[in-house]
Specification:
Blueprint lengths: L1 E5 L9 H9 L14 H15 L3 H8 L8 H11 L1 E9 H10 L4 E9 L5 E5 L5 H11 L3 E6 L5 H6 L2 E5 L3 H6 L5 E2 L2 H11 L1
Parallel strand pairs: 1-2, 1-5, 2-3, 5-6, 6-7
Antiparallel strand pairs: 3-4
Helix pairs in contact: 3-5, 4-9
């Protein structure tokens, strides 16, 4: 049995923090896991910026409502789900992901949770489990699944490298240079063909 594990942001939907950076006019929030390998460091930095600007969950959710999947993403996901099981493994948060999952046809997603004060300010976050993408792949493998993984960022590398087959999708030039052993694709059709061949 195979299961495909996909990253969300940068693979199926635009980066939420980049969209919020543009909408809020705060350029520092453009920094993502494509730039910063240490997720905890990145999130604490983001939460500090939100506090400094008095911005909370409501403001971010308003921007997320305007974000659409990347062109071709839903069709790719639909085609993939016709031939195998798919789980989206993301370091985003349930409070961000729900409207995006609706637009993608409600695929299964495993992600994290924000801690939000009554006034809507984001006070922290709770990871599902440490190194959640790799941990999830390892558990799937332990119950008899072969995993195939694809992502674009530093936090996707462990699950890609631990899988039977793994691919970079629309990744950075730096990550591609650092990992020439990983096939890298730019188009959904190419990625779908590579996954089909690996099944």
């Amino acid at each position: 049995m195979n299961v495909v594990c996909l990253d969300l942001e940068g693979v199926l939907v635009p980066e939420i923090w980049i969209a919020f950076s543009k909408a809020s006019g705060i350029p520092e929030l453009k920094r993502t896991t494509r730039d910063e390998p240490d997720y905890d460091k990145l999130m604490k930095w983001r939460l500090g910026i939100l506090r400094d600007h008095g911005l909370g969950l409501r403001e971010i959710q308003r921007v997320i409502q305007t974000v659409d999947p990347m062109p071709g993403a839903k069709e790719f996901l639909d085609a993939l789900r016709e031939i195998t099981q798919v789980i989206i493994l993301s370091d985003t948060f349930t409070q961000f992901a729900t409207p995006l999952m609706k637009k993608l046809g409600w695929p299964t997603i495993f992600c994290n949770t924000l801690e939000v004060a009554p006034d809507g300010m984001v006070t922290g976050y709770k990871m599902r489990v440490e190194k959640s993408k790799l941990a999830t792949v390892r558990v799937l493998q332990s119950v008899g699944f072969d995993t195939i993984a694809a992502g674009d960022s530093y936090n996707d590398l462990a699950m890609i490298q631990a899988s039977k087959a793994g691919f970079l999708f629309r990744s950075t030039e730096q990550i591609k240079r650092d990992h020439p052993e990983l096939p890298a694709f730019e188009e959904y059709g190419e990625l779908l063909s590579a996954i089909r061949a690996a099944l």
